[in-house]
Specification:
Distance between the termini: 27 Å
Structural class: mainly alpha
Strand content: under 5%
Largest sheet: none
Length: 212
Amino acid sequence: MLRSNSLSLALTAIFAACLVAQVLLGHAAYNDELLREGSNPLGLVAYLGSGHFVSALMENWESEFLQMGMYVLLTVHLRQRGSAESRPLDPSEEHEEIAAGPAPWPARAGGAWRALYERSLSIAMFTLFAIAFTGHAIGSWRLEAAERAASGRPPETLLDHVTGAQFWFESMQNWQSEFLAVLSLVVLSIFLRQKDSPQSKPVDAPHAQTGS
């Protein structure tokens, strides 16, 4: 079981370790900020519900799900010559190898179930993006409200916050980095190799070979 699921288990462990580190370090950093402003520090549980934590967590998840959702859709129709991340330029070079065993039930059901299942990956990614975007908006608004209250400034509405420059600055600084990362992988896989990685072309493959 461990060998069959080692990739997802390793990624889950790394994710959990990084999340715990974010919680502990974010809690310490935010309390330092509160103390400098003359406010009372928050306990760890209270911090988990604070705008500081929710906003930081969700704005990063938002960008990740947007990146992957867009990547899933763009690679359906667009190509990059020589990239291992692209489908082949010639449709005749594509070979869908289906493992033995029963197809998932939505695929067998046909009709609307199959049509929905055919697009379920991008639907799931954009649904998660919408959830994270909403969480980021609310968390960021709550953080701004806390900062305004501490400095004696009047509060702002959620609508004013999500149409303001600060909220979109938070989003764009994450979005641009995510798409830069994907662009780097797409382009670098044209010329560079990683032995035995499914994200790379074979070491001896010519640069012009498109697809893995």
